[in-house]
Amino acid sequence: MPVPVSQAYTVAKYVMTQKVKGVKRYPLVMMLEPLFRCNLACEGCGKIQFPDHILKKRVSAEKALAAAEECGAPIVSIAGGEPLIHPEIQDIVEGLIKQGRYIYLCTNALLLERALKKFTPNKQLSFSVHMDGLQEEHDKSVCRDGTYEIALSAVKKAVQMGFRVTTNTTLFNTAQPARVREFFDEMMEAGVEGMMVSPGYAYEKAPEQEIFLERNLTKTLFKKIFGDAKKEWRFNHSPNFMSFLRGDIDYDCTPWGNPTYNVFGWQKPCYLLSDGYVRTFKELIDTTDWARYGQKGTDDRCKNCMVHCGYEASAVDDAFSVTGGLRLLKAGMTFRRSATYTAEELERFDNQKPYEGAHACATNSTEPSAKDELLEKIQSRGTTPVKSDEEELITRN
């Protein structure tokens, strides 16, 4: 099992409790963004456009822990930005552990090896390392050479010290199935507990728009990646979600399943979209027009989304129903089977032209090519990083 039994039990007990109570909209994973500042500028990122005075803001440990209590989700994913930059990250982690929550601390791992001394191995803490494929693919994705080697070294060091380590991988239309499978092999050899993999969301403010997948291409890509999956591969996903990625199961989004709290407050409606902010979790649940979002909704920004933070919660909720439980058993038994394709799928996939633009990778943080060039691309698309929409929205709320 890719997660501790205690974690699986905690989540199962929590979900069953919500169902017995008749709670329709409950959070599964709280997305905590204690800061937006990062030491990388990735081409698919929707955060780097914030002006400097916003990048300097932090969610205090006190507010972060209060938000987790208010939300009540059994799992907290600490994202950003780069959480290890936060001066109170140790206090946040220790506080969440005391609350009984399971933590995935998302990091690009550039600072991880030196930061490990701040933490103690604990079954409730996992370092979720951002790895977008093998060295060539990863370094291009994050726009800096050498990051893969640093991250891999940190992964091995953390595993050696007894920490739980997982990886999170975002795939774009540049992904080559054979290379992704080779990457899975390397992560297993490094000793990671489980891998999380998801198609990239087409952030409106991301500097490189050509790299994103549309929905049908996503399904074909994951068929090619997961077909004849090796028994050694361990994933940090429910079988139903992985079947969803392959197109074997269809779900609508559960945007309230992964609610987001950051420097502006509770983000409406989800981790991927910023349509306003409110001060309390209850207000988020009660005042958001949930019917607007997802595949059945009217918002065009949702139409190509198949990201885990929208659909993993759907898959988990389904697994605790009678028919969903049967789908779970079937997905577990058939996941490693060979994939079959229609002629239309193969033609669409083969004709997809991957993004081939220059990545302008920097060899170290002092060279200006990465963030400066990406910000120039944002500005050229008319998204000038001045006072942000988010600031205007939080002011009104």
Automatic annotation (TrEMBL):
Entry-linked InterPro entries: Aldolase_TIM (IPR013785), DUF3463 (IPR022563), Hopanoid_synth-assoc_rSAM_HpnH (IPR017833), Radical_SAM_PqqE_MftC-like (IPR050377), rSAM (IPR007197), rSAM_sf (IPR058240)
Radical SAM core domain mapped to chain residues: 20-228
Recorded GO MF terms: iron-sulfur cluster binding; metal ion binding; transferase activity
Location of region: Disordered: 376-397
The protein's required cofactors: [4Fe-4S] cluster
Keywords: Iron, Iron-sulfur, Metal-binding, S-adenosyl-L-methionine, Transferase
PROSITE patterns membership: RADICAL_SAM
The name this protein goes by in its record: Adenosyl-hopene transferase HpnH
